[in-house]
Amino acid sequence: MGTKFVEKADEEGFLLIDGAVKIEGFIPEDSVSCHKCQEPAIYYEPFDAFICAYCNIWLEGRCGDAGCRYCENRPEKPLPNENQRRRMRHS
Ligand SMILES: [Zn+2]
Ligand SMILES: [Zn+2]
Fold this sequence. Notes:
By secondary structure, this protein is mainly beta. About 5% of the residues lie in helices and about 25% in strands. The longest helix is centred in the C-terminal third of the chain and has 4 residues, at about 70. It has one domain. It binds zinc ion (2 copies). One zinc ion (ZN) binds near residues 36, 52 and 54.
């Protein structure tokens, strides 16, 4: 082992989650904590929102702007969760 669940990817501005999922984002120094697990939240750049990678949840609601390009494309969960729900797509 020795791989952290959340670590910096080799590419600047990216994080590697669970050694498998690379996302564009970072953990700000004054980051908020997840209300469930208390781990520091990740700022998930493409969706302009904080997430918890451990719980795989969004820590912010949608902004409520109709036609907001961030929220419009927001999946139900921030991470694909490869281990648990591989290939789960609605047909
Ligand atoms: Zn959490
Ligand atoms: Zn929005």
